[in-house]
Specification:
The chain is of the alpha/beta class and 511 residues long. It folds into three domains: 170 residues, Ribosomal Protein S5, domain 2 (2-Layer Sandwich); 215 residues, Rossmann fold (3-Layer(aba) Sandwich); 71 residues, no CATH class. Helix content is 37%, strand content 17%. The strands form six sheets. It has a five-stranded parallel β-sheet. A four-stranded mixed β-sheet has the order 1-2-4-3. A hairpin with a 2-residue loop joins strand 1 and strand 2. Helix 21 packs across helix 22. The chain is elongated, with a radius of gyration of 28 Å.
Length: 511
């Protein structure tokens, strides 16, 4: 007796369709799972055995062979339990074979009592299933806890079930299993962060730099003495970022779903992520990896912000590993088991002190660091890494008079309006190419999308010569100037825009 059912697994952030073959034959009782299963998959036979019995169905005392095809793909996790159990019941005649079973895709982890537990990557499975079955109607059967997440995919039938017996009764025609309805569109997005820029006293230059960063999706580095407000400023950048589109929400949720970091009560991310890993984090934790590749912080920050507080305190290997995602907006993780590519389109925000004690250049407090200590501290950031940070701005210490200001600063809501207006201009300008912000422009796009006046070009040439800028720094100045022009609703980049963009690369000017 042979039965075949469909399932799906996750590789990277993509779903891979599988066929579960269950064969019941004569011979000594045995239960074998083949097809490169890992330990958690092999343990499925004990979960399935108990779940079938405790749900009131007959478990055959025969030789059972389960093949997870394709056999050359390594299988991991507990999401195959439901498909194996359904295949076993179909092979023994307890579930009728037919069109209903052929159009079904099963995924879920079984408890010993037959109830279903949630799994990771439900949205990735649903999205991939929709992409792969455009010409064939498929129904996804998934644990009730994951059903609202999977139902975010339009034009895909999702049926959530809480127990194995409930599902079997439906497949046998003895009960109803309604399709899960997606969340209303208005519930997809929440308001931004509760942090607000009006709480920040002074630091107008840094606020302006963060506005430019948000408007063009530019990486930014804040440096200055301790207590000047670098972290306070950085944590408020999400409050001025544009409201995410539904497409961006699905991208963010897909990655967090695969990583198992979704809140069970919230099937999707409603705000742009703000990730701030500790400086002791490993390279695999930041970039992604492990024995079985998993998304790292650079991918969990996709469409949001990745914040490194006290940048020189991070391991140099970690900092150098940031080069690829900062440049390519994606990261490729290669392991023996698999090679996967994760999206990593985020705004990088870093902060640092000017020296180990933090007082170098302070007009009041004396620096206690020797020149060698300062050099060693700053040399932790390599030139190629600094080159990839579009904006580098000093955040000086706050004076007492500024703290006593009664008039609040500009609110995040007002700044966000200008940022969203600039982003709208960029989307309209680049609607024919795969570019979504000025930071993603390539040099080949400059002639068409970044027209520069002759005065501005002379100023750029002069700055390039005087500060010994690299070609990468040259290109990033043009991108930042393009964003500044967008904030001022100017189609042509003039000398004032170039001058401000050069001023915002202060570390290049100090070399």
């Amino acid at each position: 007796m042979l039965a075949k059912v469909h399932s799906c697994t996750v590789l990277g952030i993509n779903g891979i369709p599988l066929e579960i073959e269950v064969d019941i034959s004569d011979g000594l009782p045995a239960f074998d799972i083949i097809g490169l299963p890992d330990a958690s998959v092999r343990e499925a036979k004990e979960r399935v055995r108990s779940a079938v019995r405790n749900s009131g169905f007959n478990f055959p005392y025969s030789r059972i062979t389960v093949n997870l095809a394709p056999a050359d793909l390594k299988k991991e996790g507990s999401s195959f339990d439901l498909a194996i159990a359904v295949g076993l019941l179909a092979a023994t005649g307890q579930i009728p074979k037919g069109e209903l079973l052929e159009q079904a895709v099963f995924t879920g982890e079984l408890s010993l009592d037959g109830s279903l537990r949630s799994i990771n990557g439900a949205l990735a499975i649903a999205l991939s299933l929709k992409e792969l079955s455009s010409n064939l109607e498929k129904v996804l059967y998934i644990p009730e806890a994951n059903s609202r997440e999977a139902a975010l995919v339009k034009n895909l039938t999702v049926k959530g079930t809480s127990t194995l017996s409930q599902l079997v009764n439906f497949l046998c025609g003895n009960g109803e299993l309604p399709s899960t309805e997606p969340l209303p569109e208005q519930q997809h997005v929440e308001s931004g962060s509760d942090l607000d820029f009006f709480e920040v006293k002074g630091q107008e230059t840094a606020k302006r730099a963060l506005e430019i960063s948000a408007a063009g999706s530019h990486n930014i580095l804040l440096y200055g003495p301790p207590g000047s407000g670098k972290t306070m400023l950085a944590r408020r950048i999400t409050s001025i970022l544009p409201t995410p589109t539904m497409e961006e929400i699905l991208e963010m949720t897909r990655i967090h779903s695969v990583a198992g970091q979704l809140n069970p009560g919230k099937p999707l991310l409603r705000q742009r992520p703000f990730r701030s890993p500790h400086h002791s984090a490993s390279t695999a934790g930041i970039i992604g990896g492990g024995k079985s590749p998993r998304p790292g912080e650079v991918s969990l920050a996709h469409q949001g912000v990745l914040f490194f507080d006290e940048l020189p305190e991070y391991n140099r290997e970690v900092l150098e590993a940031l080069r690829q995602p900062l440049e390519d907006k994606m990261v490729t993780v290669t392991r023996v088991a698999a090679t996967v590519t994760y999206p990593a389109d985020f705004i990088f925000v870093g902060s640092m002190n000017p020296c180990p004690c933090g007082n170098y250049g302070d007009p009041v407090r004396e620096c206690r660091c020797s020149p060698s200590q300062i050099f060693k501290y700053r040399s932790k950031l390599s030139g190629p890494l600094i080159d990839r940070i579009d904006i580098q701005v000093e955040v000086p210490g706050i004076k007492f008079v500024q703290l006593q200001q009664e008039n609040p600063g500009e609110s995040s809501a007002d700044i966000r309006k200008r940022v969203e207006s600039a982003r709208l201009k960029q989307r309209e300008r680049y609607n024919k190419i795969k570019v979504f912000s000025n930071a993603c422009l390539r040099a080949r796009h400059f002639e068409r999308y970044c027209p520069i006046t002759s005065d501005a070009r002379r100023l750029l040439h002069q700055s390039f010569q005087n500060f010994s800028l690299s070609m990468r720094a040259h290109d990033r100045i043009i991108k930042v100037a393009r964003t500044i022009a967008d904030l001022e609703s100017c189609e042509i980049i003039d000398s004032a825009h170039i001058a401000e963009a050069v001023q915002l690369r202060s570390l290049d000017r100090q070399r």
